[in-house]
Every structure is written in C-alpha cells, then in structure tokens.
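Example record

The entry below shows one chain as it appears in the dataset: sequence first, then structure tokens.
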Amino acid sequence: MKVLVATDAWQPQVNGVVRTLNSLARAASKLGVEIEFLSPEGFPSFPVPTYPGLRLALPAPRRIAERIEAARPDAIHIATEGPMGFAARAYCRKRGRPFTTSYTTRFPEYISVRSPIPQDWIYGALRWFHSAATVTMVATPSLMTELGQRGFANLGMWTRGVDVDLFRPDCAIDLGFPRPIFMTVGRVAVEKNLEAFLSLDLPGSKVVIGGGPQEAILKRSFPDAKFLGPLDNGILAAHLAAADVFVFPSRTDTFGIVQLEALASGVPIAAFPVTGPKDVVGDNPIGVLHEDLHRACTEALLISRDACRKFALDYSWENSARQFIGHVRKVTSGGGSHEFEMAMTATESAAG
C-alpha cells in the first residue's frame, strides 16, 4: 500500500510535525507500507512575517494534480491545514476521493497570540476543513475530547512514538554547566511560553535548545540562560540526556514529542497541567505537573531517572504507524488492505 501525505511542514524546518512524519515513514516501511510526501519542495513560496525563516508554498492546482496522479497512491492523508493541505483537499473533493487528516497544531491559539482574530473564527475554519475527512487523527485523548466538544467529528487516535535507541541515558555528555540543569527544547517562539521558564529563580543552569523569532529578545532579557541553538538528533540526544529536568512550559502543544525523547533519555518532566503534558505524564511517577512551574521543576529533581526510561520504552513508532495505517486503510483504493493485513500478521507473529 502507498500513502501520499500532503504537508506544509517540511525540511529544513525542525519541528514536531516534520519529525513525526519522517519517523512514521520509517516505521511504516517495516509494515510493508510506503509513505510518500507531497511537500512544498518544487513550488514557489513566500515568507511568513510572524515566523522568520518559515516559508509557505504557493501550489498551483494543476501541479498538485500532476504530482498526486504521478504518485498513484492508494490513500491520501492531509497532515497540515496550510496551502499544501488546502490544495490536496480541493483535489480530493473535486474528484470525490476520500481522505484522512490529522490535527497536529493549535493554530487558533498560535494565531491569537499574534493577531486580534478570535479563536472561535479559526476553530470554525478548521472544523470546516476537517469535516470532509473520513477520519481526523489526533494525538491524545484530552485533545480528542476537546475537539469533540468544539464540534469536530470522525476523530481517531494516532499516538506518537520515540526512538529509544537514539534517545537514551548513556549517551549524555558533560555540558560543563552548573547543576542541576533545567533544559527545554523546541521552537523559540512566543507560543512556547519560554518566559514562564526563564523567569524562574532556579538553582544551577537554565538551557534552551532550538531557534526561532523570539531568540534574540530572550537572550537579552535572560543573559544568564544558555541558548545553544538548534541541534541535530544525535547531538540533541547527547545534550538532552545531560539534563536533570526537562521543562515544558508550553500551554498550546497538542502533544510535544520531545517529552517522550526526554523520558527516553531518563530525564523527568516539569510542566503545566495542560493538554500534552497531561496525556504524556498524567499520574505516572515520571514528572510533575503544576500551575506553579517553579515547584514542578524542583520536585521533578526527586524523580527516578530509571522510571522515566522504563516508561518511554512502551512507546514505539511502529505502534504509532499501526494506528495511522489502520485509519488510512478506510480510504484505500486498491489492494493495500490485503498487503497491510499480511504485514500485520507477520509482525504480530514475530512479536509473540
């Protein structure tokens, strides 16, 4: 079976959506499913003023049709609600072809911190966008409940995974910073709420890994914090394992894959009790969720690193891929279902 995934988020961007899609493709191939991407590559693009370094594609409908038809996919999945997503949606609607979507980014919340557009208007547009999908995949139970309350329909669960061979405790390096080390990883932008972390009076060191539009102003405002910029996966894993606590101050993420990466590295989580942290950490003894982020950070220092690692071992990208493929099978055209059933049977037999 071949699945074509339309996405606006793509390399060289470094974010959770891009990492999820690349991990999905690798895991799905082990199940006999090919994932191909309809990405912004090859299309004209324009810069996004509120996201320095980010460009959005300008896909012509004819070119979109040509690329989809050349791929000859058994199923089409739309991963983002940007120009590429809208173009793929229009193609499918025009031809009466069913498709699936995923809700991966809290656009209403992201946009509301940058503009006066009411969140309800944006949720209305997103509800319209996803209403045509056979299944809209979401990463967590709490997000599924929230979207259901907002009128979204045909929701299905698609959890995330972590590469436990890459992210592990024994790859830690000596950063040479005073301990304890409180670290956060992600885009340095206003919606990540980094000031809530950087303004805390904590012992040791505060470390930020990642780049983005707020980096310069935060460096000036918090000169004692260590800003290391974006790091590739292998280097990131070594830095992440060196932390004592992973701080996740965002209140707007739908999941936050980096939380699983931290846990796989043996690093406990400190976060607010919101969607994402609540679904990953919950009541498990692997982190502290509290509206007092300072308290969460200091109490997380007492958590067992072995417990964090053990928890992360239960999450795999292969299981995530099984969920995804199970949903896209509902819109397959051709014999992909039989191939998938054979791959699943073989995988389950080998497992036990």
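Notes for this example: The chain has two domains: 2-161+316-351, 169-312. Residues 334-352 have pLDDT under 50 and may be disordered.
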